[in-house]
Amino acid sequence: MNSVKSGAWYILWTDNIPVNRRMKISLVQCKAGMSGIDSTLMEVERLIGQGTGAGIYILPEMFATGQCIGNMELAQDMDGQIVCWMKKMSNQLDAAVAGSVLICWDGRFYNRFCFVRPDGTVQTYDKRHLFSYAGENRFITPGSERRIIEFRGVRILPQVCYDLRFPIFSRNRDDYDIAIYVANWPVKRQLSWDILLRARAIENQAYVAGVNIVGQDEFGVYEGHTALISPYGEAVVKAEDSKSQIITGALDMERLVHFRSKFPVLNDADIN
């Protein structure tokens, strides 16, 4: 058996037939914004530097500022420091960098998932389900569109934190391979996070990446439980509790296609 490496793609060959295809994906579990934007970006950059050549690097919800509900002076525009930093890192890594940023746009505020490509282009998704329990809906404008992002042959559904609780919105219409949830999810609701990540993977026959923060802020304590979950509900890779770290797993696209073909659950899904 021979192997060929191209960027973050790995193709294994047997008798000159491609039998397996993988994309490496790195999840960054960190203390979001708890030491200020500049210090946080430096720490995240240090963590990313410990990575292993992934195709996508995923950061938590509002990774540079932490939760700033009601603290709108921390909002930036799409040309601000945080997005520019993401563009710099994406270019240096020759990989996509994704995470949520508090954005001010046209006089409104959005909890915006930014997916930055190495060429500097940015695709976005605005958080649809706002956490009214903590008053997020009083300051943030909800997104109106479900988005699918395609990157190097992988179809991605971007989601933010509270979106995880709403399965109809994330239902796989045979249009994505991985759902990415970036979050500030507190330890007091940790069991829900763990179970729902697996549920979303199993019911949608898709990989699920859940990237959470660690530490403590005015809203609660966070242990992380960042993980990449397979379509079977297995943890491909899981971070240590309460530790800032980067973890890397692989999306086995050949296995995913085979599983969906062998067990075509999506064909029987409800339309609505």
Summarize this structure as a short list of keywords or feature phrases.
disordered N terminus; alpha+beta; 4 helices; six-stranded mixed beta sheet; single chain; 18% helix; 16 strands; 272 residues; eight-stranded mixed beta sheet
Largest sheet: 8 strands, mixed
**Rounded radius of gyration (Å):** 18 Å
Provide mean pLDDT, rounded. 90
What is the H/E order?
Answer: EEEHEHEEEEEEHEEEEEEH
Structural shape = globular
Task: List low-pLDDT spans.
Answer: 1-20
Number of strands: 16
The number of helical runs is 4
Structural class by sheet pairing and helices: alpha+beta
The proportion of residues in beta strands is: 25-35%
Provide the helix percentage.
Answer: 10-25%
Question: N- to C-terminal separation?
Answer: 45 Å
What does this structure look like?
With 272 residues, the chain is an alpha+beta fold. The chain has 4 helices and 16 strands. It has helices spanning 37-48, 81-93, 190-204, 253-262; strands at residues 2-6, 9-14, 17-29, 56-58, 96-105, 108-116, 122-126, 149-151, 154-160, 178-182, 207-211, 214-217, 220-223, 227-229, 235-238, 245-252. The radius of gyration is 18 Å and the shape is globular. The N and C termini lie far apart (45 Å). Mean pLDDT is 90; it is low at 1-20.
Please provide a brief summary of the model.
The chain is of the alpha+beta class. It is built from four helices and 16 strands.
Produce the secondary structure layout:
Blueprint: E1 2-6, E2 9-14, E3 17-29, H1 37-48, E4 56-58, H2 81-93, E5 96-105, E6 108-116, E7 122-126, E8 149-151, E9 154-160, E10 178-182, H3 190-204, E11 207-211, E12 214-217, E13 220-223, E14 227-229, E15 235-238, E16 245-252, H4 253-262
Parallel strand pairs: 3-4, 4-5, 9-10, 10-11
Antiparallel strand pairs: 1-2, 2-3, 3-16, 5-6, 6-7, 8-9, 11-14, 12-13, 14-15
